[in-house]
Amino acid sequence: MTAEPDGPEGRLRRFATIWSRAVFPVTSTSSTRPEFEAQLLPLARRLSEALLARTFDSDAGRAVGAALVDAHCTDPEALSRTLDCVDAYLVLYCGGDGDQEGLRARCARLQHAMAAGFARTLRERTLAEQEAIAQAALQAQGVVAQALHASEARFRAVFEGAAIGIGMADLEGNILQVNGALLRMFGVSDQTLRSRNVREWTHPDDAPQTWRLYDELVRGEREHYHLEKAFYRPDGTVLWTNLTVSLLRDADGDPQYQLALMEDTTERRLLNLRLRYEATHDALTGLPNRTFFFERLEKALGAGEGQRFGLCYLDLDGFKTINDSLGHAAGDRLLVEVADRLQSCATAPGEMVARLGGDEFVALTTGPDTQRDVDELAGRIMNALLAPISVDGRELTVRGSIGIVEGPAGERSPAEVLRSADITMYRAKSAGGNRFELADPEADARAITRHGLTTALPTALERGEFFIEYQPLVHLGDGSVRGAEALVRWLHPQHGVLGPDRFIPLAEHTGLIVPLGRWVLEQSVRQAREWRELQGGAEAVGPLRINVNLSPCQLTHPGLVQDTVDILERTGVAPDALCLEVTESALIGADDDLLKPLRRLAEMGVDIALDDFGTGYSNLANLRRLPVSILKLDRSFTQSMQQFPADPVDLKIVEGIVSLAHSLDLAVTVEGVETGAQADQLRILGCDTAQGWYYARPGPPERLHELALVDATG
């Protein structure tokens, strides 16, 4: 069965075909080209296996080089063409989908090994021929001389014609022979290079094992080694090479020479350094980027005992406005100028500035005394931003908010440090910007907790972590329970029971308040139905009503009215059993579009209560246009009534509000009633209902029913 043309075996045969066509014209063999190709196929397979092997084995390359000599490919052009063919086509046809850069490097090492194997085998063959010649010297002196000359000529031609640098030295390091490629790599004459000793070629970037491997080789303890090594040229420039050094032994197996094969990798290394620079530096500003910064920060945090670090996290204030008004090109020019100024602020040893992205920059300082250094660094940064920046003829004022984190090395991870700096920077921005703040562990913990709660909110409702407590609404005239306000709680797995002040703002910020509010509304209405069913046999003053809070986000949601109607119909509860509480601040300046859903609900019979009345700045005359039937007076007006006698000014204010509300046919509910004196005073002033700890704290629904039964039975 033949292999598929595009399969691995087919590609391998294709490589062998190309190889045979390149080498066959310069091969001294009686075989036909197809027969020669058949000889090369197992060699090609061995190269392919060595290329893809888990660990590199140079023996495969040397064996292939030796096999070429055995196949009578002893012409110097044969080795040159073979190396060219392997360089151009081995990775292409046999590399598969692996790491191309790594495969190219391994291919180069295979070429070195092939050349070493070829040179060694050819030399051994030459020595063997010389020995044969010596044995036959008495019989055919002229023939021996001719054979010796031919073998030496072949070796010399291969040595000189190789594309890679080749040098031979004795075991003391004295250089005996070098080829033209090696002379060109170093840019010196043959005499100059041969006057050097191998041990003189040290370089500061030598790997730690370089000279240990060399010593082991010349002692005969290893056959070869391979590494990357740098050499100084006479003009002071650096030559980087892939170096393979092999040990050559004499006929008795004793070490005799060392053979070095060098590939010039200087340009490749410069390219890699350039790619590394581009990967670790910001393309716009030239500053180190996030990757480089994290490397430096990780190194600073891993420093020894007694070392500290200081970090300034900078975010420009109002940069988005500049981008939106002047365009991104102007914003980029502004960032470049800011980067230049920041760079000039961090010139001391141990200091660096990096751009993390957008308009976010970070400055790092390290050393034993960063407590003082980081404050000075932040001050220099703030001063550097004082002068306006000229962009497109406009003088732009730039300000920034900085979060500072400072501490000993070894206590926190880079991610923890950057998170603390980010939180602190936003604290500086929230305080008005154009300032710097020091990290506060307690503030960090609160911010991290808020973030954790925000991320946990979406699934908390699905997991049933929310529950509702109810606080009674009591009629001030007869003390009867008329209803209750529904107050949602979150039973968090880690933080326990959380009040609405901890998570309602987060839910509003993320938009999750809409499904949460819908759930609270449905649960509360169902509870109101249960109360009315249980209330049937008691002589109560009236059916219990449920008050549910609406957030500003829910007010603007298009499904508010329909959701409410669906819930009332689904539970079989009349609209008059429901009161929706809306804060006064949510209705300040409300237009008709915002009020339309509330009017529709009010027309259905749902009561609308204006919550926290008195905390906003609404015109009292606006009460006429709002579809409300109840005013809930904020507790700030009644706190002074907890003591007797009450503040006469507060009494006048409450009396006026109650009088105004009643004149507009509005009932008045008071929050935060905590003492009997307070309740009596509010009753005298004409308030209708009240709620507070004086009557009952928020609790489970069955407790409210018990209170209602007590009122009904006397």
From TrEMBL:
Residues of the GGDEF domain: 307-441
Protein species of origin: Streptomyces tibetensis
Gene3D superfamilies registered for this protein in UniProt: 3.30.70.270, EAL domain, PAS domain
InterPro entries: Biofilm_reg_signaling, EAL_dom, EAL_sf, GGDEF_dom, Nucleotide_cyclase, PAC, PAS, PAS-assoc_C
Residue span(s) of domain PAS: 151-221
Protein name in the entry: Bifunctional diguanylate cyclase/phosphodiesterase
Sequence ranges assigned to domain PAC in this UniProt record: 225-277
Domain EAL: 450-712
Signal peptide location: none
CDD domains (alphabetical): EAL, GGDEF, PAS
